[in-house]
Amino acid sequence: xxxxxPLLAIEALEQSFGGVMALAGVSFQTHENLIHAVIGPxxxxxxxxxxxxxxxxxxxxxxxxxxxxxxxxLPPHRIAALGIARTFQNLQLFFNMTVLENVMxxxxxxxxxxxxxxxxxxxxxxxxxxxxxxxxxxxxELCELADHAEQPAGALPYGLMKRVEIARALAxxxxxxxxxxPAAGLNDTETLALRDxxxxxxxxxxxxxxxxxxxxxxxxxxxxxxxLDYGSVLAEGTPAEIQANPQVxxxxxxGAVQYAV
Length: 261
Ligand SMILES: Nc1ncnc2c1ncn2[C@@H]1O[C@H](COP(=O)(O)OP(=O)(O)O)[C@@H](O)[C@H]1O
Ligand SMILES: [Mg+2]
Known about the structure:
The protein has about 260 residues and is α/β, with parallel strands linked by helices. It has helices at about 45-55, 75-80, 100-105, 115-120, 125-140, 160-170, 190-205, 215-220, 240-245, 245-255, and strands at about 10-15, 20-30, 35-40, 60-65, 70, 85, 175-180, 205-210, 225-230, 230-235.
């Protein structure tokens, strides 16, 4: 596995905010078709890593290569078009719009027609709209939201709202999906359904980076884990390796975690 070109290769990545080093030289790689979790205490730099990966922040130093292409310096829409999509730690939905409309917003980053063509409603615009609808419907199916497509997003239970965000990210047809605390606020049943969904996403050919505090979920769904602490890599390895790592236990796991979902 390690001989293959990594899907994502991050080297000596630094992100400082004034005096705060949110990422203090992070290096790690992930490969196609993995579910790779990123864990660590609050403030460890997990969300910052996602923000840098998506081009929201320009890193202070280091490099990020996606499928061998350097991402540093690219604006967010170019990075999205290369195949990286994300969800947010805090829900970002349009409550008055339908579920389908919320999801279709996600694939507009992939739209190729210009404004003039759109204003004139040229045939290629209509073709593209059909394509966006199709991708959105596929994403809704995968997220088991098809029955809710025409409902206002604001009318759904919280667990389903979080899934609409995942569907929106998937509608952009990413190769790499970044999930930022998708289980936060979910009950046990919703968390189990989320685990199944993350596995289906991987089966559909999308690599997943998962920031999450819910250790039973993380340990049961992930192939590998990256542990961040104070902006640095504390450890990287399989769930079994991470659970047995004394430094990780001391800094984060605390030794009292049950790993069965
Ligand atoms: N836009 C920002 N401006 C200033 N400091 C920030 C900004 N974003 C994050 N930080 C700081 O960077 C550190 C890492 O934050 P974050 O990446 O959100 O951590 P995590 O997601 O692991 O909880 C924290 O100390 C946080 O306060
Ligand atoms: Mg965070």
